[in-house]
Design a protein that fits this description.
Layout (H helix, E strand, L loop, with lengths): L16 H10 L11 H10 L1 H16 L8 H20 L9 H23 L1 H4 L1 H6 L6 H28 L11 H25 L7 H11 L6 H8 L3 H8 L2 H13 L7 H24 L8
Helix pairs in contact: 3-8, 4-5, 4-8, 5-8, 5-9, 5-10, 5-13, 8-9, 9-13, 9-14, 13-14
Length: 303
């Protein structure tokens, strides 16, 4: 009778748990599906920053690669959107009454809210749309929501450039020192959007039905954030309680719009309260969103 298979006398001894862990650590191997320590997680995300930025630019490029006009649509789309909103709300519904330089007011709100809304929609679904990648490769799971917002920001950059041209034309070439704050305002909105994306991405991953509510939340916020009307004027016209006005003016979406308007829209000027509240929202959302997302790191892609 012929004996097949390895000789049991040559089988290496079974390692104890401690020896196995030491051997894995010596060769850089880690258990799959476990949450790393916070400091190490932050360092790992920072180590992947170039990949994150490359993925954001890649998503933007792939979005326009099948169009004949390519990246030109990144400029045409916001212009057409601004024109449509001006005709509907400015002329037909009369929300321009009492607002100086309404075109600048409208487009600043419209373009800024577009970034905010993309953070809610694309960011919240970013984990679900990358499940195959998450299950196949090892990387910090926070990358998909961050990439979704960065990609949205890259796609909105032409619109933010067009906004400056619109403001120059609408305000007859008037430029003030507050325009220097324009990048800072956009940075605050971006940081706030990143935090919101991390929060909603984990929530939607845990309860996928929540994804169906995101379009409703985006639509609702658009109508209460003063995208195409002045919250202050509407509060005065309706004689609403002061507390309602404060809640509407300083909720995150409305503050984002006000921050950008205060830099380039005349007659607005930077208000320290607005900047303090906006910066506070951005810091709060980013820190809470990152820690909240990190705590679920070992669970993503399992279901």
């Amino acid at each position: 009778m012929t004996v097949v298979g390895p000789d049991p006398r040559d089988v290496p001894p079974v390692l104890s748990r401690e020896d196995a862990e030491a051997l894995a650590a010596r060769h850089g191997l880690e258990p799959v599906g476990q949450r790393p320590r916070f400091g190490r997680y932050v360092a790992d995300v920072w180590r992947h920053r170039h990949l994150m930025w490359a993925m954001a630019k890649g998503e933007f490029a792939s979005e326009h690669r099948d169009n004949y006009l390519g990246f030109v649509w990144a400029v045409i789309n916001p212009l057409l959107l601004g024109l449509a909103y001006f005709l509907i709300f400015g002329l037909l519904l009369g929300t321009a009454q009492g607002i100086d330089n309404f075109i600048t007011f409208l487009t600043a709100g419209l373009f800024t809210y577009a970034l905010f809304s993309l953070a809610l929609t694309s960011g919240s679904k970013s984990l679900l749309s990358k499940l195959s990648l998450i299950r196949a490769m090892q990387f910090p799971r926070v990358l998909p929501p961050l990439v979704a917002v960065l990609s949205a920001f890259v796609s909105q950059l032409p619109a933010f450039g067009v906004l400056l041209i619109i403001a120059l034309w609408d305000q007859k070439g008037q430029v003030s020192w507050t325009w220097l704050l324009y990048p800072a305002a956009l940075l605050i909105v971006l940081v706030m959007s990143l935090g919101i994306a991390m929060l909603t991405a984990r929530l939607v991953h845990a309860a996928r039905d929540l994804a169906n509510l995101m379009p409703l939340i985006v639509r609702l916020l658009r109508y209460v954030s003063g995208v195409f009307f002045s919250i202050e004027l509407q509060i005065d016209r309706l004689d609403a309680p002061e507390l309602v006005g404060i809640l509407l003016q300083y909720q995150p979406a409305a503050v984002s719009l006000t921050l950008v308007r205060e830099t380039i829209w005349n007659p607005a000027s930077p208000d320290p309260v607005t900047w303090a509240v906006g910066g506070g929202w951005a810091l709060l959302f980013f820190v809470v969103g990152f820690v909240f997302f990190w705590r679920g790191e070992g669970t993503y892609g399992r279901a």
